[in-house]
Amino acid sequence: MDKFVIRGGNPLVGTIRVSGAKNSALPCMAAAILTEEEVILENIPQVRDIATEQRLLASMGAEVELGYGSAEHRTTICCRTLSDPVAKYEIVKTMRASSLVLGPLVARAGMARVAMPGGCAIGGRPIDLHIAGLEKMGATITQEHGYLEARADRLRGAHLVFDKITVTGTEDLLMAAVLAEGETLMENCAREPEVTDLATLLIAMGARIEGAGTATIRVQGVPRLHGARHRINPDRIEAGTFLVAGAITRGDLIVADCNPSHLGAVITKLQESGARIDILSPDEIRVQADGPLRAADISTEEYPGFPTDMQAQYMALATQAEGVSVVKENIFENRFMHVQELVRMGANIKLDGRTATVRGPAKLSAAAVMCSDLRASASLVLAALVADGESILDRVYHMDRGYEHIEEKLCGVGAQIQRLGNIFAPKEEEVVAG
Ligand code: UD1
């Protein structure tokens, strides 16, 4: 299993580039199910979750072509025939976002069999809202042998009100609604940029959608969709992670190929923490930190609030800030797996339910630590970048699920990170979040 050996102490200086958003790419790839024609996606990140989704689509009979060389960030998907509309457990257990194929499969093939996602490292993550929405649209859903089966000759438009805001739930039902008969009105939708990115692709495929990016989405169903070419948004969580890396190492970093308008809440908190942030252009942000960092509280919320996917990374920063930072996790229970590892490195953090109280600044010392999920891994990398000595991070396959060549990118701006092991060797798989 791969490990990172990280020697801390270097400020990060230079330009670091952001890849395409994994969480946009995953639903966009699932959207290819909705048409018999080719969907070409650009700016696809080379991360393991994408490889998993390619495997998932291929197992259903889709032709999935990977780009090589200069086209390595492109994938072409053609679902001319879907011989086997089944999302098998072996694949679903490694990536919960596999439930994103449920809506498009029923809409296109009239039936779907999707393995129920199992337990999860960051708390129970049910898909009851996906199921309730499809039932309202006329699907019959049964559950047997760990699989969920959905059937509908043609889905009908419906009035859907989400009890709770869900990102993949909004995306899944949006994909179901575009081919449904009549109008679907979706309320209390997720407003994340990834939902908007998916809607942009669907509209390019011929869908009729209004209001994506707001809480209310209105869809007029169409009988068929056609192929399209689409460029995936930059990854706002990767960009946010790099901004924290610049600040925590007291560096001077330009984060390039990002979208600053998706990072409002993160930028505000970094400024409150004493980092200097300059928007250099529509796709470049500069972060500088030379003075002391200050404590600032965060409370995770749905977009446009502070993202839960940045909570762990922000906590690493809070360990280095003067004063007390209160970190409240409102989206997922049990998303504090990084805390015990940060404490082993010398951080002063007290946990009480969904609240972590961080007292800083703490002098971090290098240690052997274990990555437990995608964003927790990022938090440990950030802590190791400022720890005294050489840290060893085990189970970095969690990191590889969502960060493209992170060690190469960080080494390019002055970090000292060595990967031990073979990135291409088969890895132990786990059900993980992110
Ligand atoms: C997505 C992101 C993930 C991010 C999360 C919150 C992808 C692939 N993953 O995950 O990185 O951390 O949004 O921003 O885009 N819930 C229910 N019933 C449901 C669905 C969700 O109760 O049917 C609950 C969840 O348990 C959770 C909350 O709703 O407490 C939000 O979850 P959701 O937005 O669905 O997260 P994901 O879409 O899985």
Largest sheet: 4 strands, mixed
What integer is the average pLDDT? 94
> Low-confidence segments, ≥5 residues, pLDDT <50?
428-433
Main structural class? alpha/beta
Number of helices: 14
Write the layout of secondary structure elements.
Layout: E1 3-7, E2 13-17, H1 22-31, E3 38-42, H2 48-59, E4 63-66, E5 75-78, E6 86-87, H3 89-92, H4 102-109, E7 111-115, H5 128-136, E8 140-144, E9 147-151, E10 159-161, H6 167-177, E11 183-187, H7 193-204, E12 208-210, E13 217-220, E14 228-231, H8 236-248, E15 252-256, H9 264-272, E16 276-281, E17 284-288, E18 298-299, H10 311-318, E19 323-328, H11 337-344, E20 348-352, E21 355-360, E22 368-370, H12 374-386, E23 390-394, H13 397-400, H14 406-411, E24 416-420
Parallel strand pairs: 2-15, 3-14, 6-7, 10-11, 18-19, 22-23
Antiparallel strand pairs: 1-23, 1-24, 3-5, 4-5, 7-9, 8-9, 11-13, 12-13, 15-17, 16-17, 19-21, 20-21
The structure holds uridine-diphosphate-N-acetylglucosamine (UD1).
Overview of this protein structure:
The chain has 434 residues and is an alpha/beta fold. 29% of the residues lie in helices and 25% in strands. It is built from 14 helices and 24 strands. A four-stranded mixed beta sheet has the order 22-23-1-24. The protein has a four-stranded mixed beta sheet with strand order 2-15-17-16, covered by helices on one side. A four-stranded mixed beta sheet has the order 4-5-3-14. Helix 4 (102-109) runs parallel beside helix 6. The longest helix is centred in the middle third of the chain and has 13 residues, at 236-248. Bound molecules: uridine-diphosphate-N-acetylglucosamine. Uridine-diphosphate-N-acetylglucosamine binds at residues 23, 26, 97, 125-130, 164, 166-169, 194, 308-309, 331-332, 434.
